Amino acid sequence: MAEQMTDLQLMMQERTNTGTAWTRNEKFEKDGYLVVKDLWDPEELYHPVPEQKGQYNYWDKNPEHFNHVPVESQVEGSTSRYWHPQYRAIHSGIRMKLEEIIGRKLYNTYYYDRFYYPGQELTKHADRDACEISVSVHVSTNLEGKDADKLVYDEHGMQLSAYAQGCNIDDPERVSIFVDRKNTETILFHIWDKESHEKHKEMFNSILRYWQLVKNYEWQEV
Q1: What's the count of helices (H) and strands (E) in the chain, helices before strands?
Q2: pLDDT over 70 (residue 168)
Q3: How buried is residue 190: exposed, middle or buried, by Cβ count under 10 Å (0-12/13-18/19+)?
Q4: With left for phi above 0 and alpha for psi between -120 and 50, is residue 213 left, alpha or beta?
Q5: Do 166 and 123 reside in the same domain of the chain?
Q6: I want to staple 200 with a disulfide (CB 3.0 to 4.6 A). Which of 27, 34, 35, 157 is the partner?
């Protein structure tokens, strides 16, 4: 199982790579990421969960041609697939859409998909150089029968605390809501405890301050 990178390792790598992949998209340059809605038809992306967990490595367009490793190396217990034939044309299609969005020529490197199970998470890490410009696509989910308390992480609480801080709400009621994309009538929620608000707010402000220093950006109140 891959070791989680420390915050210091991530900060050093972020600082080293900052500015190495410039684009012509002002928002991407400022924030370091973009949220693109309706990037691709989810019906074309959906695929049933494979019967066996582990890692599948495909080598051509035939879905029967693959190697199987019983243990997924990055998120133990999950299922991942490299170069699944279903996504070959989609890979190039998404690349061409991104070229229009960021205003630069891109080249295909690789793609893979992963099925997560309850309690699993992808730990903090920085990708290889081939992921200089990368895309994460949420294909589908199934919340039925899940425990909402096992679906939340500190990052979720941190985001809610950041919103509360921005709205000048000192004692917020923070709730994380999960809606199943396949069955929108399935809704789960997690109510955050009051005690964790200060911790999550401090986490956000620490990351914000680091980002400001790296980008030489000083926000001024009006």
Answers
A1: 6, 6
A2: yes
A3: middle
A4: alpha
A5: no
A6: 157
Residue 175 and residue 114 share a domain: no
Q: Is 157 in the same domain as 113?
A: no
Which residue carries 């790598």 as its tokens? Answer: 13
pLDDT of residue 2: 53
pTM of the model: 0.64
- Closest by alpha carbon to 53, among 36, 73, 35, 34? 73
Domain that includes residue 94, residue range = 1-140
108-132 pLDDT, tens per residue?
A: 999 999 999 866 888 878 887 778 8
Q: For residues 147 and 34, what is the distance between their CA atoms, to the nearest angstrom? A: 30
Say whether both 32 and 95 belong to one domain.
yes
pLDDT tens track for 58-102: 999 999 999 999 999 889 899 999 999 999 999 999 999 999 999
> What is d(CA 200, CA 172) in angstroms, rounded to the nearest whole number?
12
